[in-house]
Amino acid sequence: MTIALDAMGGDKGPSILVQGAVEAARELGTEIILVGKESLLEEELARVDGKDLPISIKNASQVVEMAESPSDALRKKKDSSVRVAFDLVKEGRAQGVVSAGNSGATLATAMFILGRIKGVRPAIATLVPTLKDPSLIIDVGANVDCKPHHLLQFGIMGSLFVKEFLKKESPKIGLLSIGEEGSKGNQQVKKAYDLLASSNLNFFGNVEGRDVFRGEVDVIVCDGFVGNICLKLSEGLAETVIAMLKNEIEGNWLAIMGYGLAKKAFTRFRKRVDYAEYGGAPLLGVKGTAIICHGSSEPKAVKNAIGVAHNLASLNLADKLEASMSNRKDILRII
Amino acid sequence: MTIALDAMGGDKGPSILVQGAVEAARELGTEIILVGKESLLEEELARVDGKDLPISIKNASQVVEMAESPSDALRKKKDSSVRVAFDLVKEGRAQGVVSAGNSGATLATAMFILGRIKGVRPAIATLVPTLKDPSLIIDVGANVDCKPHHLLQFGIMGSLFVKEFLKKESPKIGLLSIGEEGSKGNQQVKKAYDLLASSNLNFFGNVEGRDVFRGEVDVIVCDGFVGNICLKLSEGLAETVIAMLKNEIEGNWLAIMGYGLAKKAFTRFRKRVDYAEYGGAPLLGVKGTAIICHGSSEPKAVKNAIGVAHNLASLNLADKLEASMSNRKDILRII
Known about the structure:
The structure is a homodimer of 335-residue chains.
Chain A: E1 2-6, H1 14-28, E2 31-36, H2 38-47, E3 55-59, H3 70-76, H4 81-90, E4 96-99, H5 103-114, E5 123-128, E6 135-138, H6 148-165, E7 172-176, H7 187-197, E8 202-207, E9 219-221, H8 224-249, H9 253-273, E10 281-284, E11 290-292, H10 299-314, H11 317-326
């Protein structure tokens, strides 16, 4: 199994990414192709003593900037690291892509090069910690304007992901809304409720904001605008709680020792909320394996993302998603 | 200043509400009319020794149930406690209403009896704690399907509320979205960005989910679907953090003592996130003063809500909102 790593993307530069690749190759045995400026990557690889690992380099002369428009990147940078990485998958020389670069450009390039499953809106899925097992939130940012049947698609994809990746039979699917009853929510969600309820999924019904971290369902379906806000709100809230706690206990030595432990717990919590810690967020609905990482990913997150890509490619998840979508008409329903 | 309290609404029954009213009358000097079943309320009032306070009772023979449909309640229960409370304001016998009952019914009744400011969509506003001063989130549930110009209206109302109630000159207005640039967001939000940017408000630009608790802006504008999910997510996350922290430090006595302090800090935090602690959430955009409380409000929250109602009525906020809306056309723009 070979994974192509966009070794130029991200806020922190190639050295962090190469280090993550070296850890993945060493610990997980994954074959990796680093994609980017050859001479630079050779240097980085030598620096971290990665010469004897199953890591090769594929040259790409361009880099998509973090703030660049995805359509500009697609049109003007045909030799960008992210594009060459997807080309490797298309050509069968790699089985998945990991990128911590411009996520809009990664999304657009994945759709353009690998193609979408017919009729499906690809979505970004992310695992979040809960009081029980992790839950998958889908979508967290690929689709900011959705129709009800797109939410059904997210439910189907999320269900299959949890079944295959987390080995759970019959995952429970919840729809994020503002009340338990199917009659609660905006127009989009009320119609999606009906579609999910009449599908063959194990549909639990609506879940509210307060249920997201309770772990009552395995998959939480929402549009990418709402999902992205929820994800970032959770990160921000964890930080705020730490800061408030610090204020509360200033000057009390016992509390300070307690605070040390509390802070550790919080930091762990915040990291768990940060999807990079789960190894990046898979893009579901394209014909191939693609993992989107935080721009600020540390080597460990890059390593984990490579592990997830390896795992999903081994499971043939993209093919299974396509097969599960191809024989149903309800996902195309236009309301 | 007289406030009408819907003394039958809420999950916990009239005794909690009457107790809150007694505390408000005693501590704040507010005159209060308890609205509901006369004999029952007389008993409750006698029980908490409230006979000598400026509290009177107005009979209402019906009660809107928590799960009842707002339109049914409006049509069928013309002598409900919440309706009679708003009638008292309409007749000039009270200057504001507080209700912890069915919030949809309270909203519908307020709009029907008091009327809406012309062209305006009333919205529920709530103060949340941040690292700096509290921020106002508007809307948190009144409008689940909004047009861009409704978001502009929320910005105008939120700005005036913060200016009058929190005494802040030129409040900073943020628009909740998924990226800093005005080009980021869904269709609704991108258009609202342009409206807000070309208004006379002190528009800061987009804020992301992670900024909600940072306190960079005074007002966070969003539609009621997104706002309600954010509010409830925050409540749920605070609970999850407490539970996770408890797991982390089990069995370590020093940590347990630290945990006691940490838990206190969290409980305080959770209460601050719970809008009842801020004295309920004002409904802005109706021609009068109305405060919506959590169904599970404790006496303290009811007291605070009565205080907020008293304060807003004294400030003539509803009239000021109407005046500020009446001479501008941009709030009616249909895009």
